[in-house]
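This section describes the prediction task in plain terms. A model, or a person checking by hand, is given the sequence of a single protein chain and must write out its three-dimensional structure as a string of C-alpha cells. No templates, partner chains or ligands are provided. The sample shown here is typical of the held-out split.
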Amino acid sequence: MSNKLKKMCFILSKATIENVYAAFVMANGARMEGIESEIFFTFFGLEALQKKKVENLRVATVGNPAMHIPTMIGGLPGMEALATKMMKKEMEKLDMPTVPEFIEILSDSGCKLWGCKLAIDMFHLDRDDLVDELDGILTIGEFYGRAEEEGTHIVFI
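The expected answer:
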C-alpha cells in the first residue's frame, strides 16, 4: 500500500477572486510537482468558466472575515469594486496571470477542468457559454468516480 499523493481533485463552489485563485494555485502547484489535478466547477464556481463572466470576477467583501471590515461597510456601494481593484493590483505586482490566462495554463499543464451538469442545467447554460479549455461536463457522481484511485484527495473550496 502506497501513501504517495497521486491526484488532487478540487471542487470550486464560488467564483470570487480569492476562491478561484486558491483553487488555481493549488491545482497548478500539484501539476508542477507531477501530481495529477482536476477542478470541478459547481454552482457559483461555474462563473469562472463562463465566457461572459470570467473577466469580471470580484472579491467578496460581505461575509468574508478575512477582509477585516465590518459587513455594513463591506456592503457599501463601490467597496467590492475597490477591494477587487486593490487585489488585482497586488496580484499584478506578483506577476500572477489573469483568470483566463490561468485557465489556459492549467489546461496546457494537463489539469482537467470539469463543469457540473446540475449547475449548468440549473443556470440554463450551454457548452458554448463556457471557455474552450473545459474538458467536459460531469455529474458529481462521475467526478467522484475520477477520484476513486488510491492516493487521491478531494478539496472543497
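For orientation: Residues 15 and 47 are 6 Å apart (CA to CA).
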